[in-house]
């Protein structure tokens, strides 16, 4: 006879309740969303969410202080339950009321207490709709576990339409997870002959023993999240009340929509059909809208959000947009909406359990993903174009801009140039002419025009954090072409001078002589040799230098203020500064016949540190200090102690290192290359239409 054995069984561990409740619904807003959806599916005309914000806040504060006190008294090596798992007093509760159809004891047993019940499959005759014809939002049958995301105890009191009594059940999280499995668990129940205060029908959910951590969100944040989940519901059909205040979508002043910006109102939607794999089509409606310049959206609100059956199915996303495209920063104002009921009508489930995203990689949705990505890209370009066209008029009518222009007696040509500068700057600033970056930078640009120092003014833009900075600078340079034309002759002359200097430095006699005095004089008079961008820098020994730099040079005993009797000081150090760029450069020169070594770099860092300390002490903390050590680099195979140490420091230097060690020949080669680049830019501008 064969041996009889027990059949194999599929078991469900109790922690599934934790995974689908406590771990899935981690904020109060997400929990409440599930109960709002249940009320909607029950054909309730409204849902009321009630909780005392002050009581919760005070209870959390008491709990936190108790935890900190316990922690302070805990002996070393011992642990206490973490704060986030602790619960508030039993009398602090959250109550959700609706006036829907309600549930009988049988309904509670066979429907509500059946986790994972697929209502639409079990009631095919309803065609996925409620008794009053609403498209059902629930699909997975897991929303009933949401309460465990914020509470240890979930009570349900429900009175079915036509019944005089109500049924009261209690689900205790700790009791459930203590079971060996959750195939069947006995639930506490009570029959309330008086109807439980519910008339004539409806359901009340009571959440108690509330968890500390999920209750940290502000009331306004909770309202905002709930409103976004149900943005497409008509308040006349279903009203959401929270603490006696109606939850409504946050008002957004929409100023542009794509496609068809001129042919239909901004609030209208465009219908789209896409072929689906295997035949047939999918249908959805969409519109990519934008808010005004001073109404940029939070990062989590940008992109397109997808709704199915009037409930959020995918949180706002930029999908596959190219972040390097022109006009990408317009996404700061993008509020796209897609209605795609077909997603929730499919037999397969394409919506993530947390309703944050869709299975975009699936054959059904991949085409829609590509289409929406391309639409958002085009919408950004068109909105950027619209704003660019409006920019000149905005600038011309701006009081701040006009007040800055009036400070200078501009010629007609220079005034037009200033307005064009202002227009380009306005386009690059998120908040238009009201942007702090605009109001901080425009005066410097205009001043540069007024003093014939356009290139210096443009160089200040390097300190700005603007998305389109590269384009802005190139356009400004194009506008400053006249000044560049005058600069070409100077650049060519410098290139000829650099060729002559290279011949001197490459000659053996150069490294055999102590000629640092001549070298210092050369660099002091031609600061562009150190770096071409220092053309407009001021030199510490110059009598026209700002008093701040004079005082700094005197206090540090740099350049002409150095003490000739002090043998400890490096022999040749001078200071470069640019007040508009908030930049200080310390240059240390060594004699051509003295190979550079690690101690020389230490000297430079010493001066850089002293300079930064001096600036901090004199309320100049915004300045950045850089350093250049210039001399004769040791040979690559030198094993001298100082040479090896210097090579190690150089190899470990990173992109953020503020000092450079350069050979005389390296300096000239770099400068020659930079000046040649200037000529190439000029030639390209000459050829441009």
Topology:
Blueprint (H helix, E strand, L loop, with lengths): L14 H8 L5 H14 L4 E6 L1 H21 L20 E5 L6 H8 L6 H4 L28 E9 L6 E7 H5 L10 E5 L9 E9 L8 H11 L9 E4 L2 E2 L7 E5 L11 E6 L5 E11 L11 E6 L2 E7 L16 E6 L2 H4 L17 H34 L2 H7 L6 H17 L7 H15 L3 H6 L9 H11 L1 H26 L1 H5 L3 H10 L12 E2 L7 H10 L16 E6 L4 E7 L8 H20 L6 E8 L9 H12 L6 E5 H24 L2
Parallel strand pairs: 1-7, 12-14, 17-18, 18-19
Antiparallel strand pairs: 1-2, 2-6, 3-4, 3-6, 4-5, 7-8, 9-11, 10-11, 11-14, 12-13, 15-16, 16-17
Helix pairs in contact: 2-7, 9-11, 10-12, 11-12, 11-14, 15-21
Secondary structure class reads: alpha+beta
CATH superfamily of the largest domain: Histidine kinase-like ATPase, C-terminal domain
Q: Kindly identify the CATH topology of the largest domain.
A: Heat Shock Protein 90
Mean pLDDT: 80
CATH class descriptor name of the largest domain:
Alpha Beta
Strand order of the largest sheet: 5-4-3-6-2-1-7-8
**Biggest sheet: strands, sense, closure?**
8 strands, mixed
Low-confidence stretches: 535-545
Global geometry: elongated
Strand percentage: 15-25%
Helix amount:
25-40%
N- and C-termini, Cα separation: 98 Å
Discrete helix count? 21
Rg estimate, integer Å:
36 Å
Number of strands: 19
Number of folding domains? 4
The CATH architecture term of the largest domain is 2-Layer Sandwich
């Amino acid at each position: 006879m064969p041996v009889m054995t027990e059949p194999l069984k599929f078991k469900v561990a109790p922690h599934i309740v934790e995974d689908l409740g406590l771990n899935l619904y981690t904020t109060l807003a997400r929990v409440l969303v599930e109960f709002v959806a249940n009320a909607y599916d029950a054909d309730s005309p409204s849902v009321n969410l009630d909780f005392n914000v002050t009581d919760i806040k005070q209870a959390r504060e008491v709990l936190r202080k108790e935890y900190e006190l316990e922690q302070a008294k805990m002996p070393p090596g011992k642990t206490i339950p973490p704060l986030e798992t602790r619960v508030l007093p039993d009398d602090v509760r959250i109550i959700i009321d609706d006036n829907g159809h309600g549930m009988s004891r049988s309904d509670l047993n066979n429907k509500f207490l059946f986790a994972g019940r697929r209502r639409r499959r079990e009631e095919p005759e309803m065609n996925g709709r409620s008794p009053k014809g609403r498209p059902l939002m629930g699909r997975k049958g897991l929303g009933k576990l949401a309460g465990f995301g914020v509470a240890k105890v979930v009570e349900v009191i429900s009175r079915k339409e036509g019944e005089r009594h109500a049924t009261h059940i209690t689900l205790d999280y700790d009791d459930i997870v203590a079971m060996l499995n959750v195939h069947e668990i006995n639930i506490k129940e009570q029959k309330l002959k008086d109807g439980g205060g519910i008339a004539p029908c409806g359901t009340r959910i009571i959440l108690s023993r509330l968890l500390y951590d999920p209750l940290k969100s502000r009331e306004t944040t909770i309202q905002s999240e709930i409103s976004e989940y149900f943005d497409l519901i008509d308040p006349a059909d279903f009203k959401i009340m929270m603490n006696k205040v109606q939850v409504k979508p946050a008002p957004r002043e929409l100023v542009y929509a794509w496609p068809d910006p001129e042919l239909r109102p901004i609030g209208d939607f465009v219908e789209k059909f896409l072929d689906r794999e295997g035949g047939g089509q999918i249908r959805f409606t969409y519109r990519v809208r934008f808010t005004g310049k001073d109404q940029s959206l939070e990062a989590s609100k940008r992109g397109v959000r997808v709704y199915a059956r009037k409930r959020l199915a995918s949180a706002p996303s930029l999908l596959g947009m190219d972040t390097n495209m022109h006009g990408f920063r317009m996404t700061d104002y993008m509020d796209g909406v897609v209605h795609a009921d077909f997603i929730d009508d499919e037999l397969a489930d394409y919506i993530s359990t947390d309703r944050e995203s869709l299975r975009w990689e699936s054959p059904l949705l991949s085409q829609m993903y590509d289409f929406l990505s391309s639409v958002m890209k085009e919408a950004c370009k068109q909105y950027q174009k619209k704003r660019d066209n409006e920019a000149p008029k905005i600038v011309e009518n701006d009081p701040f801009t006009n007040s800055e222009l009036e400070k200078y007696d501009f010629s007609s040509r220079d005034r037009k140039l200033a307005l064009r500068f202002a227009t380009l700057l306005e386009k690059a600033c998120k908040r238009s002419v009201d942007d702090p970056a605009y109001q901080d930078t425009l005066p410097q640009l205009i001043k540069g025009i007024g003093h014939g120092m356009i290139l210096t003014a443009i160089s200040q833009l390097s300190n700005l954090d603007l998305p389109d900075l590269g384009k802005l600078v190139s356009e400004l340079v194009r506008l400053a072409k006249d000044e560049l034309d005058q600069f070409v002759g100077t650049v060519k002359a410098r290139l000829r001078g650099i060729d002559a200097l290279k011949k001197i430095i490459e000659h053996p006699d150069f490294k055999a002589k102590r000629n640092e005095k001549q070298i210092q004089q050369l660099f002091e008079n031609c600061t562009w040799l150190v770096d071409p961008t220092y053309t407009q820098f001021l030199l510490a020994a110059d009598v026209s230098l700002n008093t701040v730099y004079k005082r700094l040079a005197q206090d540090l005993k740099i350049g002409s203020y150095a003490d000739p009797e002090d043998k400890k000081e490096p022999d040749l150090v001078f200071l470069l500064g640019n007040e508009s760029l908030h930049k200080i450069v310390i240059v240390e020169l060594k004699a051509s016949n003295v190979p550079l070594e690690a101690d020389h770099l230490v000297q430079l860092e010493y001066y850089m540190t002293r300079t930064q300390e001096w600036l901090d002490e004199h309320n100049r903390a915004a300045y950045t200090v850089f350093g250049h050590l210039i001399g004769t680099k040791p040979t690559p195979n030198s094993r001298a102690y100082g040479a090896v140490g210097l090579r190690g420091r150089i190899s470990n230097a990173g992109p953020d290192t503020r000092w450079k060690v350069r050979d005389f020949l390296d300096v000239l080669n770099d400068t020659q290359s930079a000046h040649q680049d200037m000529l190439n830019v000029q030639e390209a501008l000459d050829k441009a239409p």
